[in-house]
From TrEMBL:
Keywords: Disulfide bond, Periplasm, Redox-active center, Signal. The lineage of its organism: Bacteria, Pseudomonadati, Pseudomonadota, Gammaproteobacteria, Alteromonadales. The keyword Disulfide bond applies. Residues 1-22 form the signal peptide. One of its GO terms (cellular component) is periplasmic space. InterPro entries: DSBA-like_thioredoxin_dom (IPR001853), DsbA/DsbL (IPR023205), Thiol_disulfide_DsbA (IPR050824), Thioredoxin-like_sf (IPR036249). Its main location: periplasm. This is Thiol:disulfide interchange protein. Belongs to the thioredoxin family. DsbA subfamily. Disulfide bonds join 55-58. It is found in: Periplasm. Residues 46-198 form the DSBA-like thioredoxin domain. It comes from Thalassotalea piscium.
Length: 212
């Protein structure tokens, strides 16, 4: 009986070790990502990025994020949500981005919008300014002006505000996977963009596949 207890104890210890090894995950909740309380996991795989075209940190992140978007897994929805934090100038940039979204050119023009605002100091504060900027990239002026003033663009602005409030966004860039898992962007370090991109791809893939 004593031997049986000893063997059982050893077995339980080994099983504990195996369980610990099996639960060793590549990313850690708390340091690499956090699970948002009171949010349900989305039915559709998605990545949502809160940003502003005026934010230098967002610009730096988007230069890496855009490369992931170009080769993202099929079926994964990507949505960038501009925020304003109560700044009038950022609200105007929200309208400019809503125009891109209405025209369905947000992916190809997102990084160019950062460049226009932060590198070239373009003012994108009304329909004419946005249309003139997009004309440089080959888009029709009249079509852009209509999109800027469209009901769809207005509805997008309402949706952006609602999302900012719902997720209580206080800092950007902020990336949320499947509506529930927030990437700790500061953890995505690397000596160059290639390494940072690899880190970003890996953690997004991990969170997209994560079960609750």
């Amino acid at each position: 009986m004593i031997k049986l207890k000893l063997h059982t104890g050893i077995l339980l210890f080994l099983l504990t070790l195996l369980t610990a090894c099996g639960s060793d995950e590549p990313y850690s909740k708390g340091s690499d990502y956090r699970e948002l309380p009171n949010f349900e996991k989305s039915n559709t795989p998605q990545v949502v990025l809160f940003f502003s075209a005026s934010c230098p940190h967002c610009y730096k992140f988007d230069s890496v994020f855009e490369k992931w978007v170009e080769k993202k897994p099929e079926g994964v929805v990507v949505e960038r949500i501009p925020v304003n934090f109560g700044h009038d100038s950022w609200t105007l940039l929200q309208k400019a981005y809503a125009t891109l979204r209405t025209l369905n050119i947000q992916d190809e023009m997102s990084l160019k919008m950062f460049e226009a605002v932060q590198d070239k100091n373009y003012w994108l504060g009304d329909a004419k300014a946005v249309a003139s900027w997009l004309a440089i990239h080959g888009y029709d002026v009249s079509t852009t002006e209509k999109a800027y003033s469209s009901e769809q663009a207005k509805e997008l602005l309402k949706a952006y505000y609602a999302a900012e409030m719902r997720y209580n966004v206080r800092g950007i860039p902020r990336a949320i996977v499947n509506g529930k898992y927030e990437i700790k962007i500061k953890s995505l370090e690397g000596e160059d963009d290639t390494k940072r991109l690899q880190n970003l791809e890996n953690i997004i893939d991990y969170l997209l596949a994560k079960d609750e």
